[in-house]
Amino acid sequence: MKASRVSVVGGVAASAVLLLSVPAFAHVSVTAEGEAAKGGYATVNFKVPNEMDDASTNKLEISFPEDHPLASVMTQPVPGWTAKVTKTKLDKPLEMHGEKIDEAVSKVTWTADGKGVQPGTFQKFPLSIGALPEDADELVFKAVQTYDNKEVVRWIEPQQKGQEEPEHPAPALALTAASDGHGAAASHDDKADDKAEAKDDKSESAASSDSSDSTARVLGIVGIVVGAAGVAFGVLAGRRRANS
Length: 244
Hints:
A hairpin with a 2-residue loop joins strand 5 and strand 6 (99-112). By secondary structure, the chain is of the alpha+beta class. 18% of the residues are buried. Helix content is 33%, strand content 32%.
């Protein structure tokens, strides 16, 4: 009886150790460099790990959310990869910097020119995106990872609040509260304000300098007059003494 209990306990312990020793698989994720403020622009990185021991990732497709279309998406060159940006016509045009935009980016695809993301490594794929929505707390993308052995992994399952993470979660970008002027626009406005303030300071400094120069000139003239009067008084005093 005791022996059977010991064997059961031992088996459970062994199973627990085995479960703890199994590494948690990483998944395709997205993070911002700095803040991703609502209404602004952000640089984001899609991190793609290789989860296989005998194959390399040679293709990545990122689909953009249809409910929050992004009019501006720019890729940054990634050595060994070719990027393709796909745009789609919008049913409802967007207004951006005073102009109406009738299309938005629906997908970005990176294809490896060489070995791709090899086993035991990961790769970051950067994008500049905007303008970010003001009425959402996050943007959910769909990622499709393709390996050179033709296996495809679809990271497209949204994370539901209060539930465990799905097996293949979709990359989600958390958005922060909107800053004054909305990110890049605020930076541009701040620079303009700084230039205006610098110009005003320069004008005030010039005015102050002119005022100081004028004051100095007046004081100089007064000094000359006072000095001349003093000399004249001295000469007259000398003549009076001589006559007396």
